Amino acid sequence: MKKLLIMLTPAAMLALAAPFAVAQDSQTPAPATVDAAKGLSEWDKIHAVFSHPRCADCHVADDRPRWSGAHYGGTRVHAFNVQRGNDGSGFGNPGLRCTTCHFSSNSNALHGPPGAENWRLAPAEMAWFGKSSAEICAQIKDPVRNGGRSLDDIALHVRDDRLVAWGWAPGLNREPAPGSAEATFQAIENWMAVGSPCPVP
Ligand code: HEC
Ligand code: HEC
């Protein structure tokens, strides 16, 4: 038996190991349950939020925040030649920082600047604008590109961060992201519980 296993590829060994573990009633912990159908339906709720303009317009791969929706007359780059900032910080170029116009709360004027503390662009590696559902899913799960976060950290960030919270209270005439911070937190928890599957690219 041992000799046979040595000759098999690791994948084949895994396939063999599962039935043996059951037969021998071993101490090996059960593998995490991946329920693809339930997982993908939870992911769809998460994706509907992350890809929504109130989130994605700050999560861009290039240097320009976006404006999108009927309120802006379509989708376009942010007016006033606003840039990520030549220091890469996301706070804008010296002389035209985001906080020159964006304060800690929304302007009450129609087409006035919305606001939340520390208003800035998300780092370029956290890009969602124009990306597919599979691409956003892969990014969220990649600690190299998500700020070194576990999925638990991502869920907590969505529940507690103020820039995220703005997406559901974006000010006059802007369409809010679907659902709520709490519902999205819960969807991420549910998604994790069934193995956090991503759609096939
Ligand atoms: C005003 C700009 C802005 C808006 C609007 C915004 N974000 Fe972000 N987001 C950021 C910045 C900046 C970071 C980086 C913060 C950090 O790493 O600590 C970030 C990071 C994140 C992260 C963590 C890492 C990752 O992989 O992306 C998540 C999750 C996230 N945002 C979710 C959202 C969601 C959901 C919304 C909409 C409901 C949203 N954000 C709206 C600026 C924004
Ligand atoms: C010169 C002023 C000014 C500067 C500087 C500025 N903004 Fe804005 N921004 C505005 C105004 C005004 C609006 C609202 C326009 C409207 O409602 O028609 C806005 C709207 C936005 C929105 C909302 C888009 C949406 O999805 O609803 C985002 C995101 C945004 N700005 C990001 C930034 C970021 C990030 C920076 C810095 C890198 C920045 N802005 C710098 C004036 C500015």
What attributes does this structure have?
201 residues, globular, binds heme C, 9 helices, 40% helix, 6% strand, signal, Multihaem_cyt_sf, two-stranded antiparallel ribbon, mainly alpha, single chain
Report on this model:
The protein has 201 residues and is mostly helical. The chain has one domain (34-193). It is built from 9 helices and 4 strands. It has helices at 2-7, 10-24, 36-50, 53-56, 98-101, 133-140, 151-160, 162-166, 181-193; strands at residues 66-69, 74-77, 92-93, 96-97. It has a two-stranded antiparallel ribbon. A hairpin with a 4-residue loop joins strand 1 (66-69) and strand 2. The longest helix is centred in the N-terminal third of the chain and has 15 residues, at 10-24. It is globular, with a radius of gyration of 22 Å. It starts with a helix and ends in an 8-residue tail after the last helix. The model is unreliable at 1-26 (pLDDT under 50). The chain binds heme C (HEC) (2 copies). The site of one heme C (HEC) has 24 residues, from helix 4, strand 1 and helix 5. The site of one heme C has 24 residues, from helix 4, strand 1 and helix 5.
